[in-house]
Amino acid sequence: MTQKLNLNIGTIETTMLGPLWARATFSKLYPDLLNDPKAAQIIKILDYNFSKVQEFLDEWRGLGLLVRARSFDNALKKYIEKHPNTTVVNIGAGLDTTFFRVDNGKIKWYDLDLPDAVEFRKKFIPESPQSICIAKSALDYSWFDDIEFNAEKGIFFIAGGFIYYFKEEEIYALFRAMAERFLGGEIIFDAISKLAKIIMNRRSKKAGAEAKSFHFSVGNPMKKFPKWSNKIEVVDWFTIWARTPRNQNWSKKTIKMINIAERFKTAKIVQVRFLK
Predict the structure, then answer these.
(1) Binned average pLDDT, 10 residues per bin, the chain of 276 residues
(2) For the residues of 2-43, what is the DSSP string, one character each?
(3) Residue 46 β-bridge partners
(4) What pLDDT does residue 2 have?
(5) Which of 27, 38, 108, 131 is within CB 3.0–4.6 Å of 100 for a Cys-Cys bond?
(6) 63: closest CA among 27, 98, 100?
(7) Helical (H) or strand (E) element with 81
(8) Residue 176's CB: how many other CB atoms inside 10 A?
(9) Which of 117, 119, 98 is nearest to 109 (CA)?
(10) What is the pLDDT of residues 83-114, one digit of tens each?
(11) 175 near 228, Cβ under 8 Å?
């Protein structure tokens, strides 16, 4: 019998549990969309009431987290095929389980997050020689020195649910610094539109003082990121649902919300390369 783990958690940890719950719950229902047994394993041992999480992350939002994860997985797997010994850095890792879905036994993996988040993560996902944590803010560039980087082996960054919590000037400075340091590397992340930022901030305000605010929004990535540096190139971008067929088992509300999101391009997946 699996022993349950009772949690006494704060705001940061609650934020981390939402995406984990969504991946565990909806990947069981739609494994063809994403298969995430590690997330399901972690959820199984938690003694925690997920009713509020479930209320906030209804079907279409939960499926959106699966689609984001699958989009990252696909891009990362393609990169690993070309660079089997690459370094991967998961920026704002939380309780993300991407490593367990893409590992080829050779990559070097780093999960970067704030100290409190890393401490919480280690309760469920211990470090290993191949996968280690860095307890720092992504805006503390000293983490650049904490990772192994060899331009020939390559480097790939993932940043899910990250950039829109920061001001544009902060992301601008981070990307420029990364472009100067990690030549030839790539990063994939999700971004929201200005309209989505307004809507999500209104919703967060209703949720209470502890809810995070959204700051950075992106219209056309091709017009945004290359202007930041001549070493930044957008290699791919698409609206988040553009490459996902609709499932007839999804609710009418879910399909309606997906169609609205696609019509107004409220959420995007963007992949950028740092040119040598």
Answers:
(1) 52 77 95 96 87 84 96 98 98 97 98 95 94 98 98 98 97 98 98 95 71 90 96 98 95 96 97 97
(2) PPPEE----HHHHHHHHHHHHHHHHHHH-TTT---HHHHHHH
(3) 5
(4) 47
(5) 38
(6) 27
(7) helix 59-82
(8) 15
(9) 98
(10) 999 999 999 999 999 999 999 999 999 999 99
(11) yes
R_g over Cα of the chain: 18
Q: How do residues 187-197 score in pLDDT, each as one tens digit?
A: 999 999 999 99
φ/ψ of 33, rounded to 5, equals: -80, -45
In the chain, the amino acid numbered 129 is P
Superfamily name with CATH number, domain 5-274:
Vaccinia Virus protein VP39 (3.40.50.150)
- H, E, C per residue of 85-126: CCEEEEECCCCCCHHHHHCCCCCEEEEEECHHHHHHHCCCCC
3-class secondary structure, 62? helix
Token pair recorded at residue 35:
């298969």
DSSP letters along 138-201, please? TT-GGGGGGS---TTT-EEEEETT-GGGS-HHHHHHHHHHHHHHSTT-EEEEEEE-HHHHHHHH
Strands 155-159 and 87-91: parallel
At 157, list the tokens. Answer: 């960054």
119/7 Cα distance (integer angstroms): 13
DSSP annotation of 226: G
CB 23 within 8 A of CB 65: yes
Entry pTM = 0.94
163 and 191 Cβ atoms separated by less than 8 Å:
yes
The secondary structure element, H or E, covering residue 227 is none
Residue 188 and residue 158 in contact, taking contact as beta carbons nearer than 8 Å:
yes
